[in-house]
Amino acid sequence: xxxxxxxxxxxxxxxxxxxxxxxxxxxxxxxxxxxxxxxxxxxxxxxxxxxxxxxxxxxxxxxxxxxxxxxxxxxxxxxxxxxxxxxxxxxxxxxxxxxxxxxxxxxxxxxxxxxxxxxxxxxxxxxxxxxxxxxxxxxxxxxxxxxxxxxxxxxxxxxxxxxxxxxxxxxxxxxxxxxxxxxxxxxxxxxxxxxxxxxxxxxxxxxxxxxxxxxxxxxxxxxxxxxxxxxxxxxxxxxxxxxxxxxxxxxxxxxxxxxxxxxxxxxxxxxxxxxxxxxxxxxxxxxxxxxxxxxxxxxxxxxxxxxxxxxxxxxxxxxxxxxxxxxxxxxxxxxxxxxxxxxxxxxxxxxxxxxxxxxxxxxxx
Length: 365
Fold this sequence. Notes:
Blueprint lengths: L3 H19 L4 H8 L3 H13 L3 E6 L9 E5 L5 E8 L2 E8 L4 E8 L6 H15 L8 E8 L3 E2 L4 E2 L13 H9 L3 E5 H6 L8 E6 L3 E7 L2 E3 L29 H10 L3 H19 L3 E5 L1 H4 L2 H15 L9 E4 L6 H11 L23
Parallel strand pairs: 3-6, 6-9, 10-13, 13-14
Antiparallel strand pairs: 1-2, 3-4, 4-5, 7-8, 10-11, 11-12
Helix pairs in contact: 1-3, 2-3, 4-5, 7-8, 8-10
């Protein structure tokens, strides 16, 4: 039998997600949307109001009976921080419950910076963002960084180009510095969570490295060791340049070499070849592009990759794939990192604009 506390939390998240998704809604509409009883909805709404998470928003237009009281989310009742650590810097965002960015900060880091120094600087950055925010209203910090990493333990492994980062327990160490919960994940996984999309999609990130975040069947894919998405280390040319990972001809090395040579069109074509392989392997129907290399020439990458998919897929009219550029631009990964913290509150980790989580019927709590 389900644990009653977990059941209560699950149904509370379902109701809160439904309120957020609707904008303004009534208890009657919440019952219809979630399948919970009127009694359960009343108890949950009372708790949410006492915690300051929801408030009354006036009354609905009369339809012949007693006007229904409308409810809405209180966006600034709680906050989350999303931080993106990449090889040359850190970006951090302060985000409210509606996923709106209320503040941002960034810093550059040098090639020889140690994990301890990074954590000290990042903690200062987060503390600065939270100045004036009551700590009890902060849900936590989502931290996105390059892989490979152990997401469960919050520990980095052998990050290409940053050998000194191997074994760094970024999640636990940052949490200790801030006194806040920290959720660590790969930059590409955070990126795929930064906006709603197809249940079968990829976020492909070309920056100072190359990786992919995956959602398949509506679920984030992290793999057996939470290290899925090392897309850039597929070998396309065994006689190609040596990659920072040690192999020859990795897609990441080929793309970065093209960019260093001032040939973004060549990089876009190479990236398209890798994406075509990914689409054929996983039957994706949406690919979102991100990273500084892509954002420097977004239309070039979108059009060339779209054209190449049309050439490489055997039946492109049937296997149509939407290719777009991340709507949040350079903030996409940090915004998705904030979603790692916000998701559980609304019963989902899929995006900052989540569909309500399905409730568990029969729980009047």
